[in-house]
Amino acid sequence: MTTQSHPEQGSTAFVVLISCIATIGGFLFGFDSGVINGTVDGLQQAFNSDSAGTGFSVSSMLLGCAFGALFAGRMADRFGRRALLIAASVFFIVSAWGSGVAGGTVEFVIYRIIGGLAVGAASVMAPAYISEVAPARYRGMLTSVQQIAIISGLTAAFFSNYLLAKFAGGSTTEFWMGYDTWRWMFWMELIPASIFFLALLGIPESPRFLVASGKTEKASAVLSRLYGRSTAETKAKEISDSLASDHHRPRFRDLLSKQTGMVRPIVWVGVGLAVLQQLVGINVVFYYGAVLWQAAGFSESDALAINVISGSISIGACLITFFFVDKIGRKPLLWFGSAGMALSLGLVAYAFADAPVNLETGNLNLSDDAGLLALIAANTYVFLFNLSWGPVMWIMLGEMFPNQIRGSGLAVAGLFQWLANFLVTYTFPILLAGLGLSLTYGIYTFFAALSVVFVLVFVRETKGKELEEMEG
Fold first, then answer.
1. Nearest residue to 32 via CA among 149, 172, 165, 174
2. 239 pLDDT exceeds 80?
3. What pLDDT shows up at residue 173?
4. Do the Cβ atoms of 430 and 52 come closer than 8 Å?
5. Strand, helix or coil for residue 34
6. C-alpha angle with apex 145: 5 to 334, nearest 5 degrees?
7. What pLDDT is recorded for position 1?
8. Phi, psi of 364, deg, nearest 5
9. Which entry of 25, 60, 246, 439 is 20 to 30 Å from 5 by CA?
10. Global confidence as pTM
11. Is 421 domain-assigned?
């Protein structure tokens, strides 16, 4: 791929390249989120924690994610999208190293929260950056790469965990240089995190941030490189006209309607999308997949292998969305995915409902038919999520807000998204112990069904619209 720009026409190749660099943040988002999946046994053994303590160790990163998303959106309006992505890359490096060397629960939680700050920042800034550099005609396609990157990161973490555990003989056994295998699972992240940091040094700042900051000459230079010299000046004026009439810098107060003094409706729609994406329970599969399948009677090795299969299926679903989201639109994919997830989650709950419990291990003894149904339905659910809510929610959040409130709107939606993620992740071990797999999945089924209604009633289509056309 050449990155040579054409002054009169711009460079599509350059737009694609810098968008892909931004999505490395999504890859690390996925890797950092998924690596914990194979380390749960190691954490319990190393830190001698109970189910609630383990739940907090696993979910502690999500507290950092919530604050990372909140402050990244605001800081990005002040320092720039690129600057925040660079800061996130440094935090990824620190967290990956520290999580592996941690000698106790408190130290481990601190490093995971640092990683959470990075994930939270990358989760909102990568789609925002891509939306602000990509033309409307293929903006959805490029933003959907974020979800492909997230799932690729998750799959890479699952595969890395699987290989390390296989060669070492288990996640809790001693491996290279006398360190336990689960520690090496965290250290593998240092490779992509370092690549991300170096690659970010070569991308330009978002032109929409530059216009909002009064740096019109720099914005015009970036727009010329992206879209061509002939359209750069016109586009810069359109961006400027879409901002506040007094041209003040974006701020949280802009989220309030001037007419009513209440929070703008578009903000509540963004929060609803962000929260419902988590309440369908997808990250239970990602974070606790190995625990879930072992509870259903599979061995640790088989459970880790199933995670790899689920990740591969997810990438395939995201690729379908990549090719069709700018043709079909965002809203149809969302409601179709919601309906399919409700059905498949209901089947998972049904498969677990009548399975007897092994009194010695506490695991379910699934029959061959029930085990097959659970496996097929769960992977169908994962496929449908990554066909719809996985990528499309991030696409919507990156483009649905007007230019003046994009950073602040993303910050608030991101905060609620990660708080919901924390709630679901932290409560899963408790629900598993108290209600069992069937009723727990019944809860996620309810929210999947609720999301159908939410999409049909509140979500507006954004396909093909320029960011300057967004209202709220």
1. 149
2. no
3. 65
4. yes
5. helix
6. 130
7. 41
8. -80, 145
9. 25
10. 0.74
11. yes
pLDDT tens readout for residues 120-142: 888 888 888 888 888 777 788 88
Nearest of 253, 247, 374 to residue 306 by alpha carbon: 374
Share of the chain above pLDDT 70, in %: 78
Q: How many domains does the chain have?
A: 1
* Average predicted confidence (pLDDT) for the chain: 79
Dist CA 321 CA 395 (whole Å)? 11
Q: What pairs with residue 256 in β-bridges? A: 263
User: Rounded CA gap, 188 and 97, in Å?
Assistant: 9
Give the structural domain span for 465: 12-469
Give the separation between CA 281 and CA 284, rounded to whole angstroms.
6
Q: Is the pLDDT of residue 361 over 70?
A: no
Contact 69, 411 (CB under 8 A): yes
Whether residue 7 lies inside any domain: the answer is no
Residue 58 lies in a domain: yes
Backbone φ, ψ for residue 322 (5° rounding): -55, -45
Q: Which two tokens stand for residue 450?
A: 């609720």
Residue 374: CATH number of its domain: 1.20.1250.20
In-domain check, residue 6? no
Residues 6+ apart with CB under 8 A from 421: 62, 65, 278, 283
90 pLDDT tier (thresholds 50, 70, 90): very high
C-alpha separations of 306 from 314, 329, 379 in Å: 12, 31, 9
Dihedral of alpha carbons 106, 28, 344, 423, sign: positive
Mean pLDDT of 229-257: 70
Residue located via tokens 């007897």: 356
| Long-range contact set of residues 364-371: C-beta below 8 Å, sequence gap at least 24 | 364/295, 364/296, 364/297, 364/437, 365/297, 366/296, 366/297, 371/296, 371/297
Residue among 141, 470, 445, 69 nearest 318 (CA):
141
- For the chain, the straight-line distance linking the first and the last C-alpha, in angstroms and rounded, comes to 38
